[in-house]
Amino acid sequence: MNNKLLIIKAITLLYRLTTLTDKLERPIQLLIDVTNAVKTPDMDLTVDRETRMMSQLKAITIEMIYASAEASYSIHDLLQRIQIVCEPDPILFEAFRDNILLELSQEDIKKECINIISMFRRYFKEKECKEVINKYAAIAKFRPEEIGDLGKFIQQMMTDLEPYRVIGEEVKPYKISSINFDDTESVVNAFRDVQKAKMVGGSMFRTGLQKINTFLDGGIRRGETILIGALQHNNKSGFTRQLFRNVCMLNTPVVDTPGKKPAVVFNSLEDSAEVLFEKLYRVMREQETKQACTADMVRSTSPEMMAEYVIRKLRQTGWHVIIECFNPSDMTYLDLQNEILELEAKGYEVQAWFVDYLSLIPTKGCIQGPHGVDLRDLFRRMRNFTAAKKIAFITPHQLSTEAKMLVREDTMDFVKQIANGGYYSGSRQIDQEVDTEIMMHIEKFDMGSYVQSYMTFQRGKHRGGEIIPEKDKYCVYPFANIGELPDDVDGECRAVAKVGAVPKVDLGEEQAKTVTDNAFWL
User: How far apart are CA 376 and CA 261, in angstroms?
Assistant: First the structure.
């Protein structure tokens, strides 16, 4: 944008603002920045006529900026001043005159003012972006010895450029939705979204466990960030993989944009591909056959057969499944987000995204401050990114040493005690940035002839669902003799009322006949 357009638009804005009956706040600092951007030399006899014109237009602009907010202008006097000043450039004056003499409604005047303000902001954002690019280009071209590690140099440049990924206000990445009550169709569409959010396969994905679906008010919702909290060695990653399999195998995708490919993405920042795929194959076989799938069985099965089995199972409902393993020490949250952006560019519509674990990503580029501020900001940035794209985002996170102390003290109902307590490693405020918390903990019970393991769950915060009874926020599932928690969504519920109980489905027929409604199982 050239200096003439900048200064004429500034004068137009200042005049139009005075004609509004419903006043807009004058963007004083923005206008001062505009005048500062128009460089003019000190006035002397050697200055050419056009430079003198720009200096005088700038002076008029500054005068109007510092005038009283209640000031008004005679359009004829203003035009006369501009015409005299623009004597060297009559076309500039004519452009200003033709615009300023247009008879506009109050609504159109307000729109013009907002558009000019947006144009100025976009101008400065583009200017800042170019300065960042030029800075790194100068280092690369003239001071290459300052680069050091090329990968880190590029990463730092990407971090500095991140605020400018979307320039201009025509596209507003911060605006997730807009409903105007003057537009009946937009309100109707909002209620369509309400209905869709309640429909499994639309904006909600059911899990394989009935009681988990109950305390999630139906299942995992698109656009929500779900945090799975547990102490170390309490099956956080295993449960995350189970939810991943459930979304793929139990839900038929429905795309928002026709022609897009519905996708579920799993990113492992902890396991290598070979470890992850062995776990997936073994657990899926055990769930299906109810028999142990040993390491020897994996070694003796051809890679082609295992690949065919996993592909068939995970894609049976129509999903495109992408599994990627990363070294988190070489990443930032921008790298993770860029993976999704690249998939979108290839025609995928990512609807569910599992990251095991997000907290392993360095917080470079996040707000730095007292302990935990950077980690909280990392979760905030990821939630904002996925919420805008209607992606369900699920990640496990380790609980703090304070939570571990509660276990050592033999605290009863451990998961109930820690829910909504902020017992997270690295920050006590992560829960403020997520939509849903699922707390889990393995408890063991001596059954006499054997020790039974149970997974206890407690739902904490849940922004998106209905208010449900407190008793439904807690559930207990016994582990099977093999594999992980057996899915029960399409059969009899395997949850029990408390640790030490036996699922009714596991009792013999005669025992089941003798139980009462007060029995220890559900």
Answer: 32
CA pair distance 154, 40, nearest whole angstrom: 37
Task: Transcribe 9-44 into DSSP letters.
Answer: HHHHHHHHHHT-SSPPPP-HHHHHHHHHHS--PPP-
Retrieve residue 421's tokens. Answer: 């307590």
pLDDT tens digits along 436-468 = 999 999 999 998 888 999 999 999 989 877 788
Torsion over CA: 266, 267, 273, 278 (sign):
negative
Q: Name 185's Cβ contacts closer than 8 Å, sequence gap at least 6.
A: none
Question: How many angstroms separate the Cα of 351 from the Cα of each of 145, 317, 319, 385, 386?
Answer: 44, 14, 10, 13, 9
Q: Is the dihedral of CA 318, 339, 369, 29 positive or negative?
A: negative
Is residue 443 within 8 A of residue 418, CB to CB? The reply is no
Q: What is the DSSP letter of 347?
A: T
How many other CB atoms are found less than 10 A from the CB of residue 416? 17
> What is the distance between the alpha carbons of residues 411 and 416, in angstroms, rounded to a whole number?
10
Residue 171 confidence (pLDDT): 43
Residue 194 three-state SS: helix
Using an 8 Å Cβ cutoff, are 515 and 521 in contact? Answer: yes
Q: Are 87 and 119 in contact (CB under 8 A)?
A: no
Residue 510 is predicted with a pLDDT of 44
Q: Which has more confidence, 390 or 189? A: 390
Give yes or no for a contact between 382 and 393, defined as CB atoms under 8 angstroms apart: yes
In this predicted structure, what is the pLDDT of residue 161?
Answer: 83
pLDDT of residue 477: 95
Confidence (pLDDT) at 520:
29
* SS3 category, 445: strand
pTM, full prediction: 0.66
